[in-house]
Amino acid sequence: MKISPLSIFILVAVAGLVYSGIQPPVMVINPRALVLFTELETVDLPCKASGEPQPTYTWKKDKQDFNVAGSDDLISTVENEGTLVFKQPRKKDAGMYQCFANNSYGVAMSGIVELRLAFLQPYTNQEPETITVSPGSSLILPCNKPISYPEAKFTWLLKYSDGRLKVLDFTERIQMDHKANLVFANVQEEDSYKDTAYVCAATNLFLRRINMLNTIYLRTLPEQLKDYQIHILSASPSKMVFLKGDTVELQCIFGGHPTPKIRWYRNGKSIHPNTKYAFSKFNHQLDIRDAGFEDEGDYECHASERSSGQILQHTMRVEIESKPEWTTKPKSIVTSGGSSVTFICNGTGKPPISKPVWYINGKRINEYSNKNKFIVEETYLSIINVTRQDYMTIQCNISNIHGYIFADAFLSFHEMIRMERYPSDLEVSKGAEAIFTCAATSDTMQEDDLRTIWWKDGKAIAIDDRISLNSQNNSLTIRSVTRNDVGRYTCMVTDGLDSVNASAFLSVKGTQPPVILINPPTQVLFKEFQTAVLPCKASGEPQPTYTWKKDKRDFNVAGSDDFISTVPNEGTLVFKRPRKKDAGMYQCFANNSYGVAMSGIVELRLAFLMPYTNQEPETITVLPGASLVLPCNKPISYPEANVTWVLKHKDGSFKAFDFTERILMDHQANLVFANVQEEDSYKDTAYVCAATNLFLRRINMLNTIYLRTLPEQLKDYQIHILSASPSKMVFLKGDTVELQCIFGGHPTPKIRWYRNGKSIHPNTKYAFSKFNHQLDIRDAGFEDEGDYECHASERSSGQILQHTMRVEIESKPEWTTKPKSIVTSGGSSVTFICNGTGKPPISKPVWYINGKRINEYSNKNKFIVEETYLSIINVTRQDYMTIQCNISNIHGYIFADAFLSFHEMIRMERYPSDLEVSKGAEAIFTCAATSDTMQEDDLRTIWWKDGKAIAIDDRISLNSQNNSLTIRV
Q1: Where would one find the signal peptide in this protein (predicted)?
Q2: pTM for this one?
Q3: Domains and CATH numbers, the chain
């Protein structure tokens, strides 16, 4: 008897989405922050955006609308771009410009660009100056630098009596300092020229213009060359800030005779040239290439002179800061609507970046009146309940004192592909024909734009002589169906970007115990009087019937006055108007004459948000600089409420509270002030904690608190912990670990994070949020276990305080081996395997036979359980059954089922008889067999002689009509 496969189909239709081509504008070419020009020489401000329909462009100058058309053709824009072209720019055209790209779905704006006139201040001729010095003494010749934009480049020249100029060759003894002055460590007779002068020259490279500045003649007195002690003539300041990525240039020029020798040190250790460090200007300058935070420190230049033994040093403290850099840029979102979407804008910088400034269609988000539509929380912008009217361009700006970065994205919507004709479940006889049909459509797309692809059990179907696809109606035809064709067939309609699909099962008629195909989730929430569904469906032949248990007792669906029903041909339970009494623990059972399968247990639970009893507003008074925790009286809610803080104004209006580095919400939803300042006290505005049950879409405004500060001077307070994650925590593999430390103190402490003693930097694994007060560890794995520390420091006092958190990772159960269905002919033993992994380790498997725990069966010798194995001994054709297995740990359980079934029995109807014939006669053996459900064509006859297959030839033949074997002797 052959295997009897699945005989029930499940139809799964998932709405697919196809991008329609509509797109709000997004800037693709932005002007630079600064564009220089010279009068009457063409200059352009580039600007171009993507978008569909194609955007149109406008400009603003100095925050006022700028009319390009009213410029007498001296200013124009490039076709199909916003690029602004000044053909003959003049001084009046200088200003701050900004480009706006607009279509009917949104507005994108560029960064602000300054159009600035380049200039070099004319030099007024002055009488040459003559300077006389003693040989060996030091000297600084000043360069009278002109005003220039961009800043001029300087050098010194020698000007001869005939007007010729020669670039001065700098030496170990003669250098130009950072201020462009010419510095002599010691003047010697050779530096004095009779008719040749020293001239400072300024070059504006953009204008390609040079100014010859002050002219100086140098004379030395007719004296003996003297020695002079080492002294500093010009040096970099004792404290300097540079930007990450720049080349740091530190300079020390010493005077004295003999000429001092220069050596450089960092944090007390000698510096040697390499890929990071280079010496220039005859060792008077140290260059630190591609500066990073690790290059911060104390640098020293030491000047020495061997004969006198004198040493003089100068120390320079180098600090590295940085412009803003992206860690997460906002990304465009294409959605189907009806839900909420979130854009993320985050970066890093030193000093820390400001909180992001969000723009919607070219306007700051706080200019929009619909405050409940847009929720800004630190680096997140959430747009609530988006509809197809919410096409928009979103832009985000983050900045610090060194500059800003600007990025844009858009919110757009898919064009819906709708499934018009779904494939139906099919159950056919072996050898018959199976035809699946499938069709989809779209409002704006032609049928030719859509492509239909068929899959079987997740793999593309190979088209051959037996399996064909009709391109006219997208039907799939399978001729001469065999049991190998049994499986799930999926029709996918796509335009190449997105898709919609539907699935059905093909089965061949036969016998199979039930197996659960659609399990309910472990929990289903409901609101009173709003329909709730507990899904359940099983395969099986004959088709299963379904029963339910509630709280481990039989549940009578028929006795529920039509308020509870099941879906035809399924066990799915539908509560049309559920009430509180319907809550409970439910379990579905699928039964046919060959076995019973049970679903996992599902909790049907009533969602609720405890009403808030109004309390009198509370007023809290604190000293300026002191820390404070405002408690949030969180209501009992299921599912757990999302909590935030809002400001309640005198007129009853609310405004979402903007958290800062100083004021944050902790994990308990309390509002925590690192230090309270006068600006936190509002005359008629209160702090209110708000709880939202997202499932119920209901908000409770909780305790109301007015904050007052005493009229005293702002004081400093030492660092102390206000709120922090516990010192030991367990998270689940795959979760995002959130570690939080909020410290009090004034000035506001700075937070740094460490793991196992090493500093943490943001990357794809780690992210800082809540102004560095929270460390997020994404997709946690066992390798992320360890000790994490948050360090709070305050520079002026030098105080450091730390908190350590031990992170341990555990996991829910996961399969390593799921039990598989077995089809056998009987008479032997069979073994099912059920194994998994988890942390803590999983329990030993719990086995169920036909919905009952295996230990409830009295025939102990029939079933043998050894660790992860279940063996069934001496199976017979009465042993059809459904086998189910459960493995669990403290974090949950997983459940799988399989069946034990049997091949169809073939019966011999006509046996061959013993034959005794004469030599040369003919011998004919006859043989025939049959089956209850199989056709004769399904059976194949093979003849053997003495254990070996018989070779058919001219003398030995096989009659395929009656399966007889003829031997001509």
Answers
A1: 1-20
A2: 0.49
A3: 12-17+423-508 (2.60.40.10), 24-119 (2.60.40.10), 124-220 (2.60.40.10), 228-322 (2.60.40.10), 323-414 (2.60.40.10), 512-606 (2.60.40.10), 609-709 (2.60.40.10), 729-811 (2.60.40.10), 818-902 (2.60.40.10), 907-968 (2.60.40.10)
